[in-house]
Design goal:
79% helix
C-alpha cells in the first residue's frame, strides 16, 4: 500500500511539473519553469525507482 501512495504522489508531481512547464514556456515566464523543474525533481525522488539498486 505504501508503494502505491508513492507512485500516486510521484505521478501527481510529474503532471504538475509538466503543466507548469507548459505554462512557463507559453508565457515566457522563468518562474513557472523553475517551479516545473522542482516538481519534476520531487517526482523523481518520491518515485524512488532510480534510487533502487538494479537487479542483475
Amino acid at each position: 500500500m505504501k508503494n502505491q501512495n508513492k507512485r500516486k504522489v510521484s505521478s501527481v508531481f510529474l503532471i504538475l511539473g509538466m503543466a507548469f512547464l507548459a505554462i512557463g514556456v507559453s508565457t515566457d515566464n522563468t518562474t513557472f519553469s523553475w517551479v516545473a523543474i522542482v516538481f519534476v525533481l520531487i517526482s523523481l525522488i518520491s518515485g524512488g525507482r532510480w534510487l533502487r539498486p538494479r537487479k542483475m
